[in-house]
Amino acid sequence: MSNETIGKFLLKVYEKTDDNEIGYFDKYEIGEEIGLLDKNEVDDVVKCLVKDGFINIDAGIPKIRITEEGIEQIRNNQI
C-alpha cells in the first residue's frame, strides 16, 4: 500500500469531517471516492491508519472517524 493512497484516504476523511464535530463515515464509500474499489485494499489502508492512531474504527460495522492525531497530521501536512 502506497503512502500516497494512505494520505489520500486520510485527507478524504478529514474533508468529510465537520470542523466542530468528528463524525463516523463508511470506509468503503471513502475508498470509492478516492478510486479504491477493492474492499481488501480499503481494509489494508484502514489498518495502517488505525495502527498509526490517525483513525478509529467502530467495531462490527465499516464506520471510521478521524482522531485528533489524524487531524494534526493533515494540518501539519505530514502525510
List keywords for this structure.
three-stranded antiparallel beta sheet, Arc Repressor Mutant, subunit A, 53% helix, 79 residues, alpha+beta
Task: Explain this structure.
Helices cover 53% and strands 13% of the residues. With 79 residues, the protein is α+β, with helices and mostly antiparallel strands. The protein has one domain (3-75): Winged helix-like DNA-binding domain superfamily/Winged helix DNA-binding domain (Arc Repressor Mutant, subunit A, Orthogonal Bundle), CATH 1.10.10.10. The protein has a 3-stranded antiparallel sheet with strand order 1-3-2. It is globular and about 30 Å long. The two termini are 14 Å apart.
Please provide the ordered H/E string of secondary-structure elements: HEHHEEH
CATH class: Mainly Alpha
Overall SS class: alpha+beta
What is the percent of helical residues?
40-55%
Number of domains: 1
From the alpha carbons, calculate the radius of gyration and give it in angstroms. Answer: 11 Å
Architecture blueprint of SSEs:
Layout: H1 3-16, E1 25-26, H2 27-33, H3 39-51, E2 55-58, E3 63-66, H4 68-75
Antiparallel strand pairs: 1-3, 2-3
Helix pairs in contact: 1-3
Give the gist of this structure:
By secondary structure, this protein is of the alpha+beta class. 53% of the residues lie in helices and 13% in strands. It has four helices and three strands.
